[in-house]
């Protein structure tokens, strides 16, 4: 079990996109995930202020990202990662579909930003078999409102992703503190 956690953590750290955040900081500094959550809220707010967003002619299929905390905590890190990858892949498919229908500059700009942000996390977690992992069939719902895509992304960050990072931080930041190497680990 401990070896699996170490391998998952090592893979995660080796496959982080450079330039966004150091791997140690992303996991250990809770302020960084809060920054991403804040950005998701800002995107949702901005898209809500766009004038006359169309109702999607083809409903967006969105992952159901709600969860029970105790159930989530009982899953392995690898299972959590796989669920997040599946949710992100489905969400990004919905974004691409909406981009084909939203021509207004305001909405299109926010969808592009959402795509970049979600893709960052998808690339971060898709190092093994890619986003179309076997058995990747998350629970889903259909929505015709563009704003629902942004709300789903925000809930995914606030829920599953936030608690996944907290779980990784238990191992990673504990080790960093013991070695006296990373002052950010105490910033949870």
Walk me through this protein's architecture.
- The chain contains seven helices and two strands.
- The chain is mainly alpha-helical and 188 residues long.
- It has a two-stranded antiparallel sheet.
- The C terminus is likely disordered.
Main attributes of the structure:
globular; 188 residues; single chain
Which shape, going by the Cα principal axes? globular
Largest sheet: 2 strands, antiparallel
Structure summary, number of beta strands: 2
> Count of helices?
7
- Helical content (DSSP H or I, runs of 4+): 55-70%
Q: In terms of per-residue confidence, which ranges show pLDDT below 50 for 5 or more consecutive residues?
A: 12-20, 179-188
> Structural class of the secondary structure composition?
mainly alpha
List the secondary-structure elements in sequence, H or E: HHHEHHHEH
The residue-averaged pLDDT reads: 80
Radius of gyration: 17 Å
SS strand fraction: under 5%
Termini separation comes to 25 Å
What is the topological layout?
Elements: H1 2-14, H2 23-28, H3 30-49, E1 60-63, H4 69-73, H5 77-99, H6 105-125, E2 140-143, H7 146-179
Antiparallel strand pairs: 1-2
Helix pairs in contact: 3-6, 3-7, 5-6, 5-7
Outline of the structure:
This protein has about 190 residues and is mostly helical. It contains 7 helices and 2 strands; from the N terminus they run H-H-H-E-H-H-H-E-H.
């Amino acid at each position: 079990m401990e070896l699996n956690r170490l391998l998952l953590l090592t893979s995660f750290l080796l496959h982080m996109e450079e330039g966004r955040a150091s791997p140690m900081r992303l996991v250990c500094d809770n302020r960084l995930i809060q920054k991403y959550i804040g950005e998701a809220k800002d995107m949702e707010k901005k898209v809500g202020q766009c004038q006359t967003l169309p109702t999607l002619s083809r409903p967006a299929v969105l992952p159901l990202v709600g969860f029970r905390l105790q159930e989530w905590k009982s899953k392995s890190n690898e299972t959590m990662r796989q669920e997040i990858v599946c949710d992100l892949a489905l969400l990004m498919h919905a974004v691409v579909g909406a981009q084909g229908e939203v021509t207004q500059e305001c909405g299109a700009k926010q969808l592009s930003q959402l795509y970049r942000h979600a893709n960052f996390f998808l690339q971060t977690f898709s190092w093994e078999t890619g986003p179309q992992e076997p058995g990747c069939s998350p629970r889903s719902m259909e929505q015709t409102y563009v704003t629902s895509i942004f709300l789903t992304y925000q809930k995914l960050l606030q829920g599953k992703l936030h608690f996944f990072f907290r779980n990784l931080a238990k191992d990673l930041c504990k080790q960093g503190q013991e070695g006296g190497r990373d002052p950010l680990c105490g910033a949870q």
